[in-house]
Amino acid sequence: SAAGPLKSVTNRYVGSAVAVQHLNAEADYKSVLTREFDSVTPENEMKWGVVEAVRGQYDWSGADAIVAYAKKTGKSVRGHTLVWHSQLPDWVGGLEAAELRAVVKDHIRTEAGRYRGKIRAWDVVNEAFNEDGTRRQTVFQEKLGDRYIADAFRWAHAADPKAKLYINDYNIEGLNPKSDATFELVKSLKRQGVPIHGVGIQGHLSLMYGFPSGMKENIARFAALGLDVAITEADVRIPLPVTPEKLDAQASYFGQVWDACHAVRRCVEFTTWGFTDRHSWVPDVFPGEGAACLFDENLRPKPAYARLNP
Ligand code: G3I
């Protein structure tokens, strides 16, 4: 049995995504989150489609509640996310270039400004690349061109000068064309003096695809550019049904991510995308897979938890 909570066994931030509806409704969910983690990332509550579904009508209720919970419990907050093609309000998609640029700037200034000084790190731009390393053809890329990323970082920095600003993506755990493209982009942004401070590696893994190769080397090359690295959304999907062998394999994957982060001084955060199999995005998106978290449905620690906190 563990000596103490997960947050006490490392000098990295140990975080989880949190959903406000569960925080409000489930005392056991809240108590495990509060006990085990020292950083929280709102799972959906800060996304543009949630905070401004209707143009000019803001709903900060979920985001405010999570920021208040974090303050009360002494946790750090990772803001997620300012510029993302998904969970975008419908009204944004139809704008022409000049107006879109003004609206993106206003969105960043409004949201990052509202929480100025309260967010340790922001995922400024999320999921900008395709698997082959080309830019994803989002509404931002198509209408604003390559420069939208540098602009977004400058606007975020102006709105909250002390927040660490990250680019964040999935399938950039190991060495591959997508992580290469991310590396080249952040290198060039740094060279141009764009205020970017870190690379977020989501860490959505599946036992069906094997462990990504070269994770430690990949983290190290970002750090060598003078950037921080954060594991921002770790989970390990299991092809159902769950068996003891698969739980051990899952533990090994989580452990390898944890170890890769701890091998590089500038890997400053290990955050999981939720902490209990009771609530997870996985079964909705990957039918036949699930049980991707450190705790089971009843909030009992799984072998993966024991691997990180023996
Ligand atoms: O809140 C509405 C509810 O009112 C409505 O009745 C219901 C009907 O579908 O939908 C609810 O919204 C859902 C929302 O989660 C809150 O539960 C959306 O449909 C659903 O699409 C949304 O999914 C989220 C997903 O991002 C959106 O792309 C997941 O919860 C969230 O875990 C997931 O998180 C992403 C990260 O932001 C970025 N990286 C990948 C990660 C996993 O996909």
Features:
310 residues, TIM Barrel, 41% helix, binds ligand G3I, 18% strand, alpha/beta, 8-stranded parallel β-barrel
Q: Structural class from helices and strands? A: alpha/beta
Kindly report the CATH topology: TIM Barrel
Order of helices and strands: EHHEHHEHHEHHEHEEHEHEHEH
Mean pLDDT: 98
Strand order of the largest sheet: 1-2-3-4-5-6-8-9
Shape: globular
Q: Quick one: CATH superfamily?
A: Glycosidases
- Our Rg estimate from Cα atoms comes to 19 Å
Small molecules bound in the structure, each named once = ligand G3I
Query: What would CATH call the architecture?
Result: Alpha-Beta Barrel
Number of distinct beta strands = 10
Which range does the strand content fall in?
A: 15-25%
User: What helical percentage do the residues reach?
Assistant: 40-55%
CATH class: Alpha Beta
Low-confidence stretches: none
State the separation between the terminal residues, measured CA to CA.
7 Å
**Number of continuous helical runs:** 13
Describe it:
With 310 residues, this protein is α/β, with parallel strands linked by helices. It has a single domain, classed as TIM Barrel, CATH 3.20.20.80. It is built from 13 helices and 10 strands. The chain has an 8-stranded parallel β-barrel, surrounded by 5 helices. Strand 7 (204-206), helix 10 (215-224) and strand 8 form a beta-alpha-beta unit. It is globular, with a radius of gyration of 19 Å. The termini are close together. The protein binds ligand G3I. Ligand G3I binds next to loops. The site of ligand G3I has 9 residues, from loops.
